[in-house]
Structures are given as C-alpha cells and as structure tokens.
Amino acid sequence: MKPKYTSGTWKALVEGGRWKVRSSDNSMIASIEKNSQDEANARLIAASPMMLEALSGLVQLIGEEDLPDNGELSGAAICDLARSAIALAVGNENWPLS
Questions:
Q1: 72 — alpha (psi -120 to 50), left (phi > 0) or beta?
Q2: What is the pLDDT of residue 98?
Q3: How far apart are CA 90 and CA 74, in angstroms?
Q4: From CA 26, how far away is CA 87, in angstroms rounded?
Q5: Over the range 45-68, which residues count as b (16 or more CB within 10 Å of their CB) and which as e?
Q6: Where do the domains of the chain lie?
Q7: Which residues lie below 8 Å from residue 72, measured CB to CB, with a gap of 6+?
Q8: Which runs of E-coded beta strand occur in the chain?
Q9: Residues lower than pLDDT 50 in the chain
Q10: What is this structure's pTM?
Q11: What are 17-30's pLDDT values in tens digits?
C-alpha cells in the first residue's frame, strides 16, 4: 500500500529568507516560521520520510519480539517507542507499511 504522505526525498532549503521543505517534485511540504530553531526544524521535517522508512524496516525485522536490555536502555521501551512513533506517523491505519 502506498503511503498517504508525499513520497520521495524531501529537502530543506532557504527561500526568501525562510526555511522551506520541498518534495522531490518541488512541491511545498512546509514553511518554517523564522526563529532560533528554524533550520533544525526544517531539516528534521525533511528527514522524516527517510526516518519513517528506516524505523519501519527495523521494527519489521524485530517482529513481535522486543530487543534485549543492554544495561542502560530498556529494549522493550525502545521497541514500544518505535512502534508508537510509526503508528502516530501513519495514523495507525497503514502499519505495517507495504
């Protein structure tokens, strides 16, 4: 199933003194308000499709099991966070992505 968001690689760039996020076909994804975090916010938004794809792939590899704890991090908590982030990003209706 095809994702409902604008597919392809997104890029963050400055246009007219503001950070904008555009898709691979140059469609506007977001225009970021000018503030001290505008560049960081634009880059995070631009990276989100790639991060969603990577996170989805990792969770599919893990399957229903949780990662083991490593002494500092809880494997179950990390897996729950990853699954929750994916569900939030896709509106929970398209998970798993195909």
A1: alpha
A2: 47
A3: 25
A4: 27
A5: bbbbbeebeebbeebeeeeeeeee
A6: 11-90
A7: none
A8: 11-15, 18-22, 28-31
A9: 1, 98
A10: 0.80
A11: 999 999 999 999 99
